[in-house]
């Protein structure tokens, strides 16, 4: 069984690692200044965020068409008709629906779709563990149970300096977002697990104070001093990412995964200032592949 993901699922793997795990990533696209870029194909994340920082235009994202998924599934099915397709939350993107439509065009393939109900590296943890489990010979039912287990265990949250991107992308109420922008409020946003949609967890009057509130919010899930697995992501805000790591280390014993640039299709909705973290109690993931 091979694994397909979209580029809203942050894997943090090298091309060789993806090849070894038989993970195939379908790019979403971003249009900025009239030019369209396919993530991972036409522009690097670093170059995109530099371009975004210098532009007064807002980016527009688009999901792959059903035909793009169908083509990918058809090609993969030549070697193995069993495919696991893992996707960013259906509450935030229509990508999984496009993937399901694409699957109807490839009857020779046996495709199982999984909605991670989250995004970025929190989705990536699920996809990578599933691919490793398949490589170890786990059957599909056991792999699907693993995906659900990681989904239940892991959470994410992020904050940002500039609300214009969220407002423009329609991800938050325009009026509420406008008021927050005028008041210079920095929201702390998570993804709820039922529908996989954004939820506001808190807010602060400064970016640094918002970052420092992360520990208290994580303490709602895990006792201070607990060992947690964590991974920080950001757009073009290494300073904010480092502040977040130091903040969490004051409250938890952190097993860090590498800090990563967030997917450009996600950063397009939040802007280059975004900083976020995925986290889970280490004991809940200790025996996952």
How would you describe what is shown here?
The chain has 289 residues and is α/β, with parallel strands linked by helices. The protein contains 13 helices and 14 strands. The protein has helices spanning 15-21, 45-53, 66-77, 95-104, 120-135, 140-153, 164-168, 174-182, 207-212, 214-218, 238-249, 264-267, 282-285, and strands at residues 2-6, 23-26, 29-32, 35-38, 60-62, 82-87, 110-115, 155-159, 186-191, 198-204, 227-234, 253-256, 260-261, 275-281. Helix 4 (95-104) links the parallel strand 6 and strand 7. The two termini are 16 Å apart.
Relative strand content: 15-25%
The topology string of helices and strands comes to EHEEEHEHEHEHHEHHEEHHEHEEHEH
Helix coverage percent of residues?
Answer: 25-40%
**Secondary structural class:** alpha/beta
Low-confidence stretches: none
Straight-line distance between termini: 16 Å
- How confident is the prediction overall: mean pLDDT? 91
Number of strands: 14
**Helix count, per DSSP?**
13
Shape: globular
Describe the largest sheet: 7 strands, mixed
Radius of gyration, CA atoms, in whole angstroms: 19 Å
């Amino acid at each position: 069984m091979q694994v397909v993901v979209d580029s809203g699922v942050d894997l943090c793997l090298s091309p060789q690692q993806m090849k070894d795990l038989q993970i195939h990533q379908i790019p979403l696209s971003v249009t900025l200044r009239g030019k369209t870029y396919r993530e991972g194909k036409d522009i690097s994340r670093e170059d995109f965020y530099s371009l975004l920082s210098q532009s007064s235009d807002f980016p527009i994202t688009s999901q792959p068409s059903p035909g793009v998924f169908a083509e990918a599934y058809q090609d993969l099915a030549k070697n193995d008709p069993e495919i696991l397709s893992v996707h960013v939350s259906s509450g935030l993107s229509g990508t999984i629906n496009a993937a399901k439509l694409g699957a109807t065009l490839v009857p020779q393939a046996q495709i199982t779709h999984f909605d991670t109900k989250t995004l970025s590296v929190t989705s990536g943890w699920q996809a990578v563990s599933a691919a490793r489990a398949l490589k170890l010979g786990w059957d599909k039912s056991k792999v699907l149970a693993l995906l659900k287990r990681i989904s239940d265990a892991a959470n994410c949250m992020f904050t940002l300096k500039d609300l214009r991107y969220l407002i423009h992308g329609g991800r938050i109420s325009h009026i509420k977002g406008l008021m927050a922008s005028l008041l210079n409020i920095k929201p702390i946003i998570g993804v709820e697990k039922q529908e996989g949609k954004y939820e506001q967890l808190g807010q602060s009057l400064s970016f640094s104070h918002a970052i420092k509130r992360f520990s208290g919010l994580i303490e709602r899930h895990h006792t201070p001093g607990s060992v947690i697995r964590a991974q920080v992501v950001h757009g073009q805000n290494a300073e904010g990412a480092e502040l977040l790591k130091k903040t969490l280390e004051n409250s938890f014993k952190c097993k860090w995964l590498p800090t990563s640039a967030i997917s450009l299709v996600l950063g397009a909705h939040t802007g280059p200032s975004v900083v976020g973290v995925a986290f889970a109690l280490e004991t809940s993931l200790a025996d996952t592949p």
